[in-house]
Design a protein that fits this description.
Blueprint (H helix, E strand, L loop, with lengths): L3 H5 E7 L11 E7 L8 H19 L8 H33 L18 E2 L10 E2 L6 E2 L10 E6 L4 E6 L2 E8 L2
Antiparallel strand pairs: 1-2, 3-4, 5-6, 6-7, 7-8
Helix pairs in contact: 2-3
Length: about 180
Amino acid sequence: MHSPAEMAKSYLLVNFSDIFRGKKEVLVIFAFTTKMDYSMNWDQLDKQLTEIVQKRNQLSQMDYSDESYDDLEEELHDLEDDFNEAYEEVLEPQLEKIYSKLKSDTDILLPSAYLANAYKEMLPDANGIVTYEVAGKVGVPIESDQFEKLDVRIVLIPNPARFVLVMNGKQMKDLWRSR
């Protein structure tokens, strides 16, 4: 995956040898930078994240022997791959800051690794937006000298998108919020 800066640079190589038949070959290199819109569409992130959470909740209620289990699981993996591709560059720097504050040298993983297998759906707000909570051993465990003998994890939750600290199975604190 290319960084936004790499994506912003485009190089065009033009070989004019066919145009100047018989004349000295000319090689022209154009370099230009396109203006990139780095504004983040948090609503779209929440929409994709919510769709994944809903599929995970649905999958968690199914038995492995269910005929549609494999299809739903494959659909979920495709959604997660698309989510990682779209938002890894946005979420990874936030995770780096979180890990730094928690003084953890645990490896940072792809955003989808921070998803719980199941979420507790809360009542919709006045705008009809459903938020979620988690409990138990969900998310990615992290190690830090600050939290000796505690089960500390980070989980990604939608509406608004946020990384949450889970300690000993209890949702404790938002570590980062999209808005």
